[in-house]
Structures are given as C-alpha cells and as structure tokens.
Design a protein that fits this description.
alpha+beta, 7-stranded mixed β-sheet, single chain, 4-stranded antiparallel β-sheet
C-alpha cells in the first residue's frame, strides 16, 4: 500500500491576527483526531498560516484503511434461537445492532455454553473517500471571537473564503465548502500584484512556490525574518528597537512577506508622556518604538510592511502620516486636559454610569474612599500616609472624563493618564503613583502595586466591583465573566499577601455590602456568594504558592478569612508533613475519623465510664493537650501546636491496640465515641489531617 502526501489550504480575506493561531491549531487537532479514529497512519503533520491562508500538510498518509475482521458475541443460543432454528426477537436484535446480516451468524462455544455470534469483514475505505468529510468538519469546528456571513450563503467564518486547495499527491479531491470547490491552485501576495492563481503541481514545492510569489507560509520562519531584519536596521547605530514580544507575535500574523522599515515622527511630540506615544505606535498601529543611545524614547519607529520593498518610501510616508495625525490628536487632548487641575474632573464622574443598579462612577469613588478609610484603620496607618491614601482614592477615577480617555483613543491608559495629570496638578508623587497602580494587576502576569497607598486603593476598587456586581446578581459562570471579577478578586488576595496586610477579608466583604445596602435587593443571599467566591480565590492563591492540594483541602472545613494566617498554617503543615512522627499521627487520626464518621450523636465524655489503661491514658493526655492547643491557637503558633500533636499519636495507637471501641456495652461504646469525637474536634482547630495523603496509604 503506497502512502501519499496530502495538502489542504484554505484561502480567505485577511483574518485578524488574534484569530489565526487558535484557528490553525484547531484545524490540526480536528484532522489529527479524525485520522486517529479512522486508523489512518501518517509520518507527520505540518501546519502553515498567513493572514490569508491556513494550511495543513500531511506527510506519507496511509491511503486506505486496513480491512478488518470483526467478531461480536451476543446472547446465549437458547435465547437467540427458537426450537425451529430461527432467530428470536433478541437474536434478531443482536444481529441488527451489530449491523450484520444473518449470513454472518455462527455459534460460539464458551465455558458458559453456546452463544450466538457474528463475524464480519469490514472493507477499509480509501483516504480519498474519507478526507472530504474530515476537512469540512475541521473547517466548521474552527471557532472565532466574531464570525461573518457573506453573499447569499449561510456559512459563517472569520472572513470570506476565497479558495480551497486540496491535493492527495497531485489529485484534486472532490470537496466543496461555502460555495468554493477545491482545486490545485493557490494565490501569492496581493500587495506584490500577485493576482494570478498559482498552480501547485508538486506538493514538495508548495512552500517554494509560495516563497517565489512573496508568501512565507511557515510562521516561525516569518517571525525569525522580522526579528533579524529589525536587528539589522540598527546594527551600526546607537539606537535600538524597544523589545515587545507580544507585538512581534501580532505582526507575524499581519504580513505574508515582511519587510522592516524605519520611519519617524516630529520630535515635538516627545514632550508627551511616553506611554501615549508607545501606545499610539504599538497598540493602535502595531509599530515598534525605538530608543536612543540614552535608552530614552526617540522619534523613530519601525513598521513591518507587507508590500513591495521597492515602494517602501511611499509606504513609509503613509504610515508617518497616520502616526502624525494620531499624535497631533493626543497632543491637543493633553494640552486641553492639563489646563485644569485633576480634582476638577471628579464632579463630572456624576454623569458617568458605572452600572445601572450600582450608580455612577462618582458613587463608586465615594465607596472606594470609605473602603480605604476602613483599611487604613485596620492597618493603623499614620495620619500622613492615610491622607495620601484618601487623596488617591478621591482622584483615582478622575481621568476617565478627560478628553484623552473620553475620546476613546487611549482608553487602555486609564490610571497612567491620571498619574501624569496629578503630577501636572502638583499632587504628591506618591498619590500620583497610586492613581496609576490602583488598576494593578491588570492581567494574570501583571505586576502588583509597588506602594502601600496604591495597594490599598487597588484593593478598595476591586473589592467594591466584586461585591457590587455579584450583589447585583451578575455572577460569573464558566467562561462568562464580563466584568473580570475573577481577575479583580485574584488581585485583592494577591495584593493582601504581597503587602503582608493583616486583614480579615470576610469582614471586609461585610463592610462593603453595608455600603451597598441601598443599591442591592438580594443582599443576604449574594453576600454569601461573594464570600465563597473570595475564598475560592484564596484557594487559587495558595495553589499558586505551590501548596499541595491535600494540604489546602485539610483546611477547607474552616472559614478562610485571613490570608496571612492561612498561609502560615499551610507553611507549618508543609514542614511537618515530611516528619515520620507526623505520618504516624496522620494515620492514627484517619482511624479516629473513620470510626466515628457516620455517628451523628453529640455526647459528653463521662469520666466514670472510662476504663483503666490505654483509655484513661488517652483521655488524660488529651485534656493536657487540649489546653496547650487552645493557648497556641490564640497566639497563632501553629508550628508549636503541631509539635504538641506529634507525641500524641502513641496514645491513639495504644488505644486502638488495647481497646475495643465497638464493645457490647452501649454506654461504654457511646462514651468512647464521645472521646474520639472530642479529640477530632481539637485536631480540626488546627487542620483536618485526615485529608493529607500518605504514600501507600
């Protein structure tokens, strides 16, 4: 059986850069899974992509499924066949269910007797028959954040499909999708006037033919070209391109044949805050900023052209014109905004709705201030620091109604703009920095606030959002989290841990809900949802800290209120779990937990019923232990408490060795259960160590 190469290329209008990676990955996954299900082997699969195409190349694909002999055994012969030798209803049902015919029936002798069976020869299908359906299914399963419909058809896709190349060696497969029939033709780079179709008459030359027509289909090669070209631009220069790995990934999916080109803007715009310029270049235009010899922003930038290098001067002028217009707008907004001090913008927040039920951004600002006041008191901040916190809280949202942000050009710079306007207004540098940092962390790997003032305002802003939005019945479910509540709650617990804040998070939630009383209808129900939600985020944080799931689980029975306290408990448990004595203690405690697991009775220990020996010894040592544990718990000395537990395992073991817990005397049995329950309850004040996994347990 000869293996053949297979090539599929889907040609489209330019697909947004952020869509391509996931789409081509999904295309490969669906095709790979289908080949596995159909038992078609292959040597390897390569995937290619550009803004106008997604392609899959399969090397040495098995051209036909192997024929199979399938044997299935059904019910006993006496059930499947009647006295005349005809199939009964159960027998016929078995044959039909196996998709066999009566000619395939035979009877098989087994140790349990004779059974009806069928044996069928399944002829393998050719890859040529199977591939069209595989490809159509794969295309339909590539999902996008937004899809579109074009023409009179009913198909939805990221962008209109324009061509489809589908070859098994050099044979065109019979596939049609969205009104486009498969062919042996592809297309080159449209910006190089490559309008004529390209005949792909040799799969081995596919990449070469595209390259000859200014298309680099291998994404990694294209990315490497961009990197090398940018380095070469400033190789003999004291300038350097500002590193931006995310932008590099984006521009790789914006071009088919990259050419890095240097351009510039008027030096007068360098007086603007740096991020306004870099945001204009990288976020709006997908251009790279350039640093001068002093590592400061220069008026150069680099763009990656998809056009003919011979026309780079014309392309450069067009790009410079766009940057000029954007920076001119930014310069105007900035000049107008700073004519007034930042605090004059706060009143305008009354005209901006935060959320219909929760009121305006001004009302949110007032709540942020009240929460900051609460946190400052809990942390016993000195008066100067507290004043700075309150000023930062008052101004933190003021930039939202500035021209710079109100015109929607630079919305991602909220906070940053506020910081610069605060400095321009003569505010304390610490206050200005806090205005910028109160949005941190903005993403999963983003930095946390570097100052205590910024940290407090950040916590206040985020916890207000979490309590308010969930309190208004907008609870995140699955992947649906439009207000990014998980990110906000993650930020709260991360900041508290990072700043070592001794704060009861559950009491903080209660305080915020008290501020929202007039806004919320289902207050009592939703406050519990928020508390659970925040505790889940604390669990997540402890996982991020590297604590094992069973250690975290051993504290799941207690209410997680103080992040520092929980972390301290886990650190001490982690240290002790390595000790041999602790392993013995865990095993003993598991025996205690298991024996009383189903007993719901609540009885007090009757000393008169305790018998001499191991039972009384366990009780007496428990009373001593209990007092010591309570003392250590009050001072949160968990390491000392655990150290007290270690020798106690000997009394548990001796008790189980010498005493029959489930004895025939009901009162004695009940009393022993009460003793074990009392021991378990004392242990639970520290941790439910029965949840800790012991190897070979």
């Amino acid at each position: 059986m000869n293996n053949k190469d297979f090539l599929f290329e889907l040609g489209t209008e330019e697909i947004p850069a952020g869509y391509i990676g996931n789409a081509v990955q999904k295309l490969e996954e669906v095709i790979t899974q289908a080949l596995s299900e159909y038992k078609l082997s292959y040597e390897k699969i390569d995937k290619y992509s550009t803004p106008r195409r997604m392609a899959i190349m399969i090397k040495a694909l098995q051209t036909r499924q192997t024929d199979e002999i399938i044997e299935k055994v059904g019910p006993a012969k006496k059930i499947a066949v009647d006295a005349e030798g005809n199939l009964t209803k159960p027998g016929m049902g078995f044959v039909q269910g196996a998709k066999a015919s009566q000619d395939d029936v035979f009877f098989k002798e087994t140790p349990k007797g004779e059974y009806i069976a069928v044996r069928m020869e399944i002829k393998g299908k050719s890859a040529e028959e199977l591939l069209p359906e595989i490809i159509k299914t794969a295309i339909s399963k590539t999902n996008y954040p937004k899809s579109m419909k074009w023409g009179a058809g009913k198909t939805y896709f990221a962008r209109p499909i324009r061509w489809m190349l589908c070859l098994l060696d050099n044979k065109i497969l019979d596939i049609e999708y969205a009104g486009v029939k498969a062919s042996n033709q592809s297309y080159g780079n449209r910006f190089y006037q490559q309008k004529e179709a390209l005949l792909i008459d040799d799969l081995k030359r596919y990449l070469e033919i595209l390259r000859e027509n200014f298309v680099i289909a291998e994404r990694d090669e294209r990315k490497q070209m961009i990197s090398e070209q940018m380095v070469a631009l400033y190789q003999n220069n004291d300038h350097q391109i500002m590193e931006d790995l995310r932008l590099l990934e984006q521009v790789t999916d914006l071009v088919e044949y990259p050419t890095a080109v240097i351009a510039s803007f008027n030096e007068k715009y360098l007086s603007l805050p740096e991020k306004i310029i870099t945001s204009t270049l990288s976020q709006n235009q997908k251009y790279f900023a350039v640093l001068d010899k002093d590592n400061k922003l220069s008026n150069n930038f680099v763009f990656i052209s998809n056009g003919d290098p011979q026309h780079s001067d014309i392309i450069r002028k067009g790009n410079e014109k766009v940057v000029q217009a954007r920076l001119e707008d930014a310069s105007f907004y900035y000049a107008e905004d700073v004519k007034k001090s930042l605090d004059t913008y706060v009143e305008k927040l009354k005209d901006v709705v935060f959320q219909a039920q929760l009121g305006t951004v001004f009302e949110k600002t007032e709540r942020i201030g009240a929460i900051c006041q609460y946190i400052c008191e809990k942390l016993a901040l000195e008066s100067t620091e507290k004043r700075r916190v309150m000023q930062a809280a008052y101004l933190c949202k003021a930039d939202l109604v500035s021209l710079m942000l109100g015109e929607k050009e630079f919305t991602k710079l909220q906070g940053y703009i506020g910081m610069h306007y605060a400095l321009h207004s003569g505010e304390d540098e610490a206050v200005a920095l806090a205005i910028y940092e109160h949005y941190s962390p903005r993403g999963q790997n983003d930095a946390l606030p570097t100052s205590q003032i910024g940290a407090i305002v950040a916590i206040a802003d985020k916890i207000d959002t979490v309590c308010g939005i969930i309190g208004a019945d907008m609870i995140p479910t699955g992947s649906q989290d439009p207000f990014a509540l998980r990110r906000s709650a993650n930020g709260v617990v991360q900041i508290i841990q990072d700043r070592q804040m001794d704060i009861n998070v559950i009491e903080l939630v209660d305080f915020v809900f008290a501020l929202l009383t007039d806004k919320l209808k289902e207050r009592d129900h939703n406050i519990n949802i928020v508390k659970d939600f925040v505790q889940q985020r604390m669990h997540w944080l402890m996982e991020q800290n590297g604590f094992a799931y069973d250690l975290i689980d051993s504290l799941s029975h207690i209410e997680w209120t103080n992040i520092l306290d929980i972390k301290r408990r886990l650190e001490d448990l982690q240290e002790f779990r390595q000790k041999d004595d602790f392993i013995k203690l865990v095993l003993g405690f598991k025996r205690v937990s298991n024996i009383i697991e189903k007993d719901k009775a609540e009885n007090k220990i009757d000393e008169a019923l305790l018998q001499a020996g191991a039972e009384k010894e366990l009780y007496q040592n428990f009373i001593t232990l209990k007092d010591k544990l309570q003392a250590y718990l009050k001072t949160k000395e968990y390491r000392n408490a655990l150290a007290e537990l270690l020798p106690f395992s000997q009394y548990i073991d001796k008790f189980f060795d010498d005493v029959l817990v489930n004895c025939e005397y009901e009162q004695v049995k009940t009393n022993r259960y009460a003793l074990l329950k009392a021991i378990r309850m004392s242990f639970l004040d520290i941790a439910d160590i029965s949840k800790i996994v012991i190897e070979n347990d």
